[in-house]
Amino acid sequence: MKLILNIFFIFYLVFKPLMPVLDYAVNYNYISEELCINKNNPKLHCNGKCYLEKELAKNAQDDAQSSKTKNQGQKISDLCLPVEISEIQTGYYILTIRDKNIYKENYHYLFLKHIFRPPVF
């Protein structure tokens, strides 16, 4: 059940910006004949694109306002810190290293000088 709800929620978030375009495609005749601003001017060949543009602008404005309110909430939550977190305890700790050689040499090779000699003429 959780999986189905998660998938539905993801589809909603992904396709939410496309809802005005889908509405325009489904109700194309009604929008182009009734809701179009330029229906008296057929030379512009608007066919309801003005209505679609207004709906997309309104959708973008709603998204901008919702993101703005989200950011304001985040700023408020950043300022409200518990007392335990806001009191920073400073202390001096000296770290001692047992092994002075921290870096171990793990690279080994076998140098075979006598095998790779050029021929002598």
Key descriptive features of the protein:
mainly alpha; elongated; 121 residues
In a nutshell, what does this entry contain?
This protein is mostly helical.
Task: Describe the fold and architecture.
The chain is mainly α and 121 residues long. The chain has one domain (2-86). Helix content is 54%, strand content 0%. The chain contains 5 helices and no strands. The protein has helices at 2-15, 19-26, 28-35, 49-79, 83-86. It is elongated. The N and C termini lie far apart (83 Å). The mean pLDDT is 74.
Shape: elongated
Number of helices: 5
Give me the strand/helix succession.
Answer: HHHHH
Unreliable stretches covering 5 or more consecutive residues: none
- Average pLDDT for all residues: 74
Distance between the termini: 83 Å
Radius of gyration, in angstroms, nearest whole number: 34 Å
The domain tally reads: 1
Helical proportion?
Answer: 40-55%
- Summing up helix and strand content along with how strands pair, one would put the structural category as mainly alpha
This entry's quaternary arrangement is single chain
